[in-house]
C-alpha cells in the first residue's frame, strides 16, 4: 500500500474543473468566477469562504463560463478561517508556459494532464504541438525528484499514425517518461467527456448544430471523467501498474452518439462534413483500468449539471 502524498501538483484545466464539479467535502475554497458582475466571487465549497473584490473588477468571458480580468489594480481578499490553513497537505494547480516554468517546490506527485490536443490545431502547427507537449514534459521531468509522475497518453499511439502530430508527440513523451522518470504511470486514455472536457460529446451537447466528420461510422470508447478521476486519485494510495489503458472496454460510433444525444436533449440539425486528416477511425478498446459509467448515464449527468 502506498502512503498518501502530501504535496501534489495537478497540471490541467479540464481535470481540475472536473474535480471541483465532484468536490469532496474537504474542499475548503472553490472560486469559479462565474458571477459575471459585482464585487464578490462566491465560494462554491460548503465553507462559504467568499472573496471580496477591491479595485475595479472587470468581468469577461472565460474558457468555461465567465472570468475575472486582472488589471494590476484589482485584488481579492478571503477572510481568515481555520480551514484555509493548507500547509500540511497542499494540492496545487498551475496554468503556465510549461516549456520554461520553474517549479516552486519539491512535489511528491505530479499529474501532468496538460497538452495541446486539438487535432485541427496540431495539424496546422505541428511544431507548436511538439513544443507544447514534448518540451513541456521534458522541462517538468528535468526538475522532478518526487515519488510519482503520472502521464496521460492516447489510445492513438499504437496506430503509429505519425502523420498525426498529436499522436507523434504523445509517443515521444512516453519514451521520455520511460527514460527520465524514476517512478511513473503512463495511462493511454480513451475519449474523456464531462465538465471541462473538449470531447466530441461536450461539443455535440453545447452547439446548436451537430457537425460530424466523415460518415459517422468511426468508433470511440467514451469515458466519463468522474470514473477517470477516481482512478487517478487512487494512484496516490496504490499504484497498480506502470503502463495501461483507461476505458470502458466498449466502443460507440459517432452516429450512435448522435442518436443518444438527440434522444436525451432533443433534435437539432445534423451536418456531415469531410473526414479530418489524421483522425483515428477505430481505436482498440483495451482497458486495464475499467470505467463503469454507461455513455447514456454520463450524458444524463452532464445535462443535470447544465440544468440542475
Describe this structure in words.
- The chain has 8 helices and 18 strands.
- 29% of the residues lie in helices and 22% in strands.
- α4 links the parallel β9 and β10.
- By secondary structure, the chain is α/β, with parallel strands linked by helices.
- The chain has helices spanning 13-21, 119-124, 126-143, 165-180, 200-206, 225-234, 254-265, 295-306, and strands at 8-11, 40-41, 51-54, 58-61, 66-69, 75-78, 91-93, 109-112, 148-154, 184-189, 191-193, 210-213, 219-220, 222-224, 243-247, 252-253, 270-273, 289-290.
- The two termini are 39 Å apart.
- α3 runs parallel beside α4 (165-180).
- It has 2 domains: 8-22 and 87-306, Rossmann fold, CATH 3.40.50; 29-85, no CATH class.
- A 7-stranded parallel sheet has the order 7-1-8-9-10-15-18, with helices on both faces. A 3-stranded antiparallel sheet has the order 2-3-6, with no helix packed on it.
List the helices and strands and how they pair.
Blueprint: E1 8-11, H1 13-21, E2 40-41, E3 51-54, E4 58-61, E5 66-69, E6 75-78, E7 91-93, E8 109-112, H2 119-124, H3 126-143, E9 148-154, H4 165-180, E10 184-189, E11 191-193, H5 200-206, E12 210-213, E13 219-220, E14 222-224, H6 225-234, E15 243-247, E16 252-253, H7 254-265, E17 270-273, E18 289-290, H8 295-306
Parallel strand pairs: 1-7, 1-8, 8-9, 9-10, 10-15, 11-14, 12-17, 15-18
Antiparallel strand pairs: 2-3, 3-6, 4-5, 13-16
Helix pairs in contact: 3-4, 7-8
Question: What name does CATH use for the topology of the largest domain?
Answer: Rossmann fold
State the CATH class of the largest domain.
Alpha Beta
What value does the average pLDDT take? 83
User: Nearest-angstrom radius of gyration?
Assistant: 20 Å
Main β sheet profile: 7 strands, parallel
Total of DSSP H or I helical runs spanning 4+ residues: 8
Secondary-structure element pattern, one letter each? EHEEEEEEEHHEHEEHEEEHEEHEEH
Tell me the β content.
15-25%
Helix content: 25-40%
Tally of discrete structural domains:
2
Which sequence of strands runs across the widest sheet? Answer: 7-1-8-9-10-15-18
Shape: globular
The residue ranges in which pLDDT falls below 50 over 5 or more consecutive positions are 1-6
Tally of strands: 18
